[in-house]
Every structure is written in C-alpha cells, then in structure tokens.
Amino acid sequence: MGVFKDAAEVQRYLGGIFDLAMADDEVSGILAASGVVLHVVYSDPDSEITVDFPNRKVYKGASDLPPVVELSMAADLGNKFWLGHVNLPVAMARGQVRAKGPVPRILKLIPVAKTLYPQYERMLRDSDREDLIAAGS
Amino acid sequence: MSIAQEPGAATHKDIDLSARSFWQKSQEERDHAFSILRAENPVAWSRPPESDLLPPEENIHGFWSLTRYEDIQLASRMPQVFSSANGVTMEDFTPEMTEMAQSFIAMDAPRHPRLRGIVMEAFKPRNLRKLEGWIFERTRELVDEMAWRGEGDFVADISVKLPGRIFTSFFGLPEGQLADQAVSAAQRLLSWTDPEACGDQTGLELFAGAVLDLYEVVQELLPERQANPGDDVLSWIVNAEFEGQKMTDEDIQAFFVLMAVAANDTTRHASAQAVYSFTRFPDQRRLLAGDVERYVPTAVEEVLRWTHPVLHMRRTATRDVEVRGTTIKEGEKVVLWYCSGNRDEEIFADPFTFDITRNPNPHMTFGAGGPHYCLGAALARTMLKAILTEIYTRIPDISAPEPDFLVANFINGIKSLPATWTPERR
Q1: Is B93 on the interface with A (CB under 8 A)?
Q2: Count of domains forming chain A
Q3: Chain A partners of B93 at a C-beta cutoff of 8 Å?
C-alpha cells in the first residue's frame, strides 16, 4: 500500500505543491514561459493532477485539458520527488516514470522544481505529516 | 539442473564474459579467450552480466554466447527465431529505456523494416556516391588543420570530428551549441561501463542523461522541421508516416538517438583503432603508405575486421532452438560475438595477423547478414577510406602507440590517442 491514504491526500499534497508554485510570481513566471500543460497520472492510489503552466492553474482530478507532457508514476515516487530524492532521468530509465510528449521541456524545469523542495517538506511538517517525510527519505 | 540454470558460473574455465574485469583486459587477451571458446565451448552460457543498469534483483538473466562465425551468421539470418525486440545489448535495460533509446534496431518485422525504410533513401548507393567527394573534402580540411602540428590527439582531431560533421549535415543541424550537444551526447552514450567516462555518475545516469540531451536537440528542431521541412533526414522522419500515421514525438526522439549514436560512435572508434593498428604493425603501415591508392580498398576491410567497433549484438530466442547440440530455450538471451567471428580460424587464414592485402575479407563488423545489417556500412567505408587516404598520403609516419581504451563490452573504443608525426609543410 502506498504512503497516501487516498486520492484526496495525493491531491492535497502533490497538488498542493503546484498551488504553492503558482502562488509564487517568480516560479510561476518561469513555469508559464515553458508553455507546458503537464498531466501527472498517479497510481496507488489512483489520482490525476493537471497543471496549466501558461495560465497558472492547477486541476485536481480528471481534466479535459489536452496535455503537452504526461507523466505516470506511483504516488509514493511523487512524494519522494518533491522531497528531493528522485533523479527524474534515472527514474524514467528504470521505468518508474513513464513519459509521453516532449520530455526535455519538463526536464528543463527541474532546477525550478528543486527550489520548491523545501516548501513541500514544510507543507508536510505544517500538516503534521512527518510520516510522509520519513516514507520519502 | 541444466547448465543454463547454474548461478554464478563463469562462461568457461577461467573465462568470464560477464565480468567487468574481462573487458579491462587487452584485446590480445580477449582474442585468446574467444579463441578458446570457439574451440572448446562455442555455445557457452554465462551468468548475468555485471551491470548497474538494473537493480541487482532485476539483473537476473544470463546469456548464451555464439562465438563461431557460422553460428553468428545463422542466428543473424533467422530473425524470426533470434529476435531483436527485447534489446540488443548483453546487459539488460528496462523495456522503457530500450524503447527510449534503441528505436528500430530493437524491433522485429513488421515494425523494423517500416521504420528503417524511412531513412533507407539517405543511404542508397547513388546518394552515397554523390557524397564521396564531399566526405573527402571534409577529411582534407580536418587533416589541413592538424597535419602541420606534428602532434595531437587523433581522436579529438579527426575521429570525432569527421563523423560529427557528416551526422550534423545529414540531419541539417546548424553548427553551434545544438550540434555540439548532439555529438557530445552521442559519444557519451555507449560509455556506461567505463569508470572514467561515468565520473561520479552511475552508468545508468550517464546513459539516461545522454539520451535526454539528444531528446532536447530534437525538441529544439522539431517545430521548424514540421513547419518548413528541408532535404535532411530529420525532416524526412518528422514528416514520414509510420503505421499509417505521423511518428509520435517519442518515436522521433528514439529514432534520433539511434541514428546519432550509430553515426558518431562507430566510425570514430574504427578510425582511431586503424591508426593504432598501423602503429603496432609498421610493415603494414609502410605497405599502405607506399601505394595508398592500391591498398586502401583492402586496408579498409582489414581495419574493419581487425577493430570491429561493435563487439556484439544480442538477440532473444523466440522458441526453443538447438545450436551445435545445445538447446537454447525460448526467452533466453543470445549474444552474437562479432569480435569472435572476425577471428574464426575456419573462415580467416591467419586470423590473428593484421594483413591489409587480405582478400576476400568476409568480416562481420557490420553484422552477419539478415535484416539488421548495418545501414551505414557504405558510408562508414567511405569515411574510413577518406581518412586512411589522407593520413597515409600526407603524414605517413604517424605513430600512436599509447591509446586510452574505453572499458566496454559493447563498443571496442579508444577515448584518446596521442599521436606524433613529421609535420607537413604549410
């Protein structure tokens, strides 16, 4: 069983980090410039998040918005990623992350994503979810 | 228990093709080992290769080795039994990585010929004949840049640059950062077993990073090639139909990776190995330099036989099949050792002699027939011919006795080759 209890938890935390990103003018500006609509499909538990970077919007759950890049991964891996413990190219090579579309456009955003790692950890701590931090370390 | 189930066993006696240390040995030592295998155990089983491409618990597949020319040829020509679809290297990648990086080389019919067909046009003899003059000109320019110096790294000066220029021209890559990124990534990609090349990265990190660098190049170029297709291979790929529809980004990216590596990382090593071989065998160097025009056609073939830049290709049995009385079971990996076939005593007289007059020379450096025979064989021959002609006409005493070899079980490579020669007068 995964570290997240249900889809709502996935959306709260793995979607929540995107909410924080969109609320940060500098970060969301860089993401918007990429022109990417990112669709992340999580498993165990199943959940979906779509982030429209150009329009700075986060959709939690199913969305009709056509993605530019789609990533599929276990929700556990998403947690580990935001805690800074996943090398995305290697995870792709190992088949832990499946990607569709122009992946380099997402890889270019990894340096920006890294600036969000501390915010993700802080969000978990503020929510008394040390268990997720422990599970992702 | 069948031999194929024995864990941890070496390939034969003290020969262990699965060990990284085997591939650190000299070419002579490895040649000797393969000669023993051909004589005593030509269809030999090996434990899973030492590899960090998969986690240890997933790296569980041993492999059969075919070491005799005749058997390698047979397997190459029976693609319905010896499939390429599960990967072409002795070490296993995940299926995802195979799909991301190996494109049609890791496919069977009908997908393989359809995808390969898209680029066939570029390699047709009439197109290559038109290119021959152009390749000689590029080679001349590169030799102009280094011949007056009297010393240099042959790999950096010639081996890397010539295939790089031809590749970037084929794909219409403008000179500059993108072209440099593509050539550099293509050269890194197959070095995943070399500790120095990896530095502080794992082999998988190096490989995946190089693949994604190549993806980035494609992504930069795609919009323009879709909008304004030119007469270059990338435009053909972008606009070609595969299985009734345009290729997806993923198909195009994998295709580009395959072509980049095939173009940049094979001829590069063949030309470096050529100069090293002529240094080791000065009588052959004198023979070639004495009448380049006469000897260069057979010298090219002997360099290819002697150096085999691609050491092996791997297949997977699609059903139980018997080879020399040994049953290879469905699903088992089978490695075709071209480096061994090229030294087979039953095919080649004095196989351990580097002889540029050898003729005929039915080496298997480009494969042993069948649908996966190297698409770029004629182009590679032309490049080698141009390099040998220019070098041994203009700086015939070039000497390079101390190569820095790549440690690898797939590519027979040279990373750098310090060379000296009598400077050409400017």
Answers
A1: yes
A2: 1
A3: 93
| Residues of A whose CB is below 8 A from B208 | 89-90, 92-93
Q: What is the pLDDT of residue B3?
A: 45
Top residue of A34, A88, A94 to mutate, by most chain B CBs within 10 Å, is A94
**Distance between CA B215 and CA B220 in Å, rounded?**
9
Q: How much is the pLDDT for B123?
A: 81
Please report the pLDDT score of residue B55 as a whole number.
87
CA distance B382 to B398: 21
What does the alpha-carbon distance between residue B370 and residue B140 come to, in Å, rounded to a whole number?
35
Q: Over 70: is that where the pLDDT of A117 sits?
A: yes
Has residue A137 got a pLDDT over 70?
A: yes
The pTM of the full predicted model, rounded to 2 decimals, is 0.90
Residue with the two structure tokens 């088949």: A95
The answer to the question of residue A132 being in a domain is no
pLDDT, average across residues B216-237: 90
CATH of the domain at A87: 3.30.1050.10
Within 13 Å and on the Cβ side, how many CA atoms surround B353?
Answer: 10
Domain range for A24:
7-126
Task: Tell me if B208 and A89 make a contact (CB, 8 A cut-off).
Answer: yes
CA-nearest residue of chain A to B92?
Answer: A94
Q: Establish if B256 touches chain A: CB-CB under 8 angstroms.
A: no
pLDDT of residue B2: 43
d(CA B249, CA A39) in angstroms, rounded, equals 16
* Order of strands, sheet of A98-100, starting from the edge strand that comes earlier in the sequence: A57-60, A47-52, A37-43, A69-74, A98-100
pLDDT at B105 over 90: yes
- For residue A127, the distance in angstroms to the closest alpha carbon of chain B comes to 34
Which pLDDT score, from 0 to 100, does residue B357 have?
A: 98
Residue A137 lies in a domain: no
pLDDT, tens digit, for every residue of B375-421? Answer: 999 999 999 999 999 999 999 999 999 999 999 999 999 999 999 99
In a domain, A105, yes or no: yes
Interface test with A, best of B52, B57, B215, B257 (most A CBs within 10 A): B215
Does B162 touch chain A if contact means CB atoms closer than 8 Å? Answer: no
Using CA atoms, how far apart are residues B55 and A91, in angstroms rounded to an integer? 12
Residue A92 within a domain: yes
Tell me the chain A residues in contact with residue B94 when contact means C-beta distances shorter than 8 Å.
93-95
Interface contact B100-A93, CB threshold 8 A: yes
Say whether the ipTM exceeds 0.90: no
